[in-house]
Every structure is written in C-alpha cells, then in structure tokens.
Amino acid sequence: MNDVILPLPRLLVEPIVRAALVEDLGRAGDITTDAIVPAEARLDAVIAARQEGIVAGTDAAALAFALIDPAVTVRIERGDGARLRPHDVVIRLSGPARAILTAERVALNLLCRLSGVASATASLVEAARPHGKARIVCTRKTTPGLRALEKHAVRAGGGSNHRFGLDDAVLIKDNHVAVAGGIVPAIERARANAGHLVKIEVEVDTLAQLEEALSVGADAVLLDNMNPDQLRRAVALIDGRALSEASGRINRDTVGPIAAAGVDLISCGWITHSAPIIDLGLDAA
Description:
With 285 residues, the chain is an alpha/beta fold. It has helices at 10-25, 31-36, 58-68, 97-128, 147-156, 174-180, 183-193, 207-215, 228-238, 255-260, 270-273, and strands at residues 42-49, 53-54, 73-76, 83-84, 89-96, 135-137, 170-172, 200-204, 220-224, 243-247, 265-267, 280-284. The strands form three sheets. Strands 6-11-10-9-8-7 form a six-stranded parallel β-sheet. The protein has a four-stranded antiparallel β-sheet with strand order 3-5-1-12, covered by helices on one side. A two-stranded antiparallel sheet has the order 2-4. The model has no long low-confidence stretch (mean pLDDT 96).
C-alpha cells in the first residue's frame, strides 16, 4: 500500500516476539512436534495468503522462526505494504522441520493480526481519498504489548500514527477539562508544564468549545462525534489556525463524508482494536 515501509528495529520487535514464543512453549516446549518429528527432518514451506489484503508483520513473523532456530532460512517474497491476492506467497521457509512447526503459530498470529490492521487501514484510506486531504490516523486503542507493531501496520496500510503513548504529546480530553474547570485553564496549565516541542491538542464537542480552544492557541483540535455539517463549520472557524482532527464512529461508510468536510486528520480506533485478521496459512512446499 505504501511504497517504502521502514522496518521496525529488531531491538524493539524481538522482546514482543520472544514473549509470544515463551507463552506458547510454556514449561516443556512443543511436546507434539518433538515427539513426532525426527530431529534431523527438514521442511520446505510457504506462508501464503488465503484472501485479499495488505500484508504487515513479515519481519516479526520471520523473527519467530529465527529465534527458535537460526538455521531456518526465511525469504520474504512480499514485504509489508504489499497488496495480496489469494495464493500469493508471502514468506518461503526452509530448514529444520521442528523449528518451523514450533514457530508456526506465533508467526501466523502476528502476521494475520498485523495484516488485518494494515488492510482495515487501507480500506479507510481508499474510501477517504476521493473526498479530501484527510489522513487516516490510529489511536492508543491497541492490543496491550503490540502497540509498536500495530502502529507499524497502520503505516503499511497507508495510514499515519497519532501519539504513541501518554508521553509524546498532550491530548486534553473531556475529563481533563472537567477536572481543570474548563478548556482555557486546561490548555494554560498544559502549556506551562509541557516542553517547547510538545504539541497540545484538545478535544471539543461543540463550536463554542472550539472557539475557546482557538482563543488560547491550541495546536490541534479533536472534533469529537461531530456530523459532516458541524465539521464543515468547524473547519471554517479554524481557518488554518490549528490542525483539525475528526473522531468518533469512523467506518467505511462514514469516512467519505467526514473527509469531504475538509478536516486534516481522521482518527479511528477500529483499525487497531477491531480489525478482522487476514487469513494466511503455512503449508509444505
């Protein structure tokens, strides 16, 4: 989907994959494979698509096999961001059969899950593209432990990343506003405590709240659960003074009219928390 998808550093990916393998191997390892498959047996296999989609997670899948046995040869045929059709080969494997069979499920779990995220993202990107400039961005509604991988998958699907955590940007939500006593004091306190490179975004539900946020120079405004007409009015009011982000009930049916309202960003939790997997399977070659 994207022309160039930079891989995540192995230092970041390996602990995630290693933890998944430890969870699967448990206390005694793969007792089924070890009992049935001779230690000297070798296997040539492929991981192939069983449906259309966008692939993501190939590096994580490859690492699962390498961590079980570095003797497994892994060749990625279609890298992250590639569009898949049924029967397309994504990865070719060759090496010790025990290692390939032991790592299979973890590799496929990651690959299917992340390809699902990439494919869901691509579906929104493609639905929004004819209607405006809006970029599709993800949220913090990610699977615990998989955030870095899922946000990478969003990029593979043509989307962009919102903040990675609570520490890289200020996002003032409705409960922050309630505790602070209003939008203006919330923004003023955030600005007094944030570093000069930290952006400040505030969630607003009404045009009156939007005017308050703009009056004290919010860098971005999250226009929460506004309909397309309200969004158009909000974009006109902002008039380029801040980034505009639409959020709430975003899906394939609603994203076009929302993009047509002229917002800069459309954030969607569905692409990470509810994306269906893309079916890929491992078979002997």
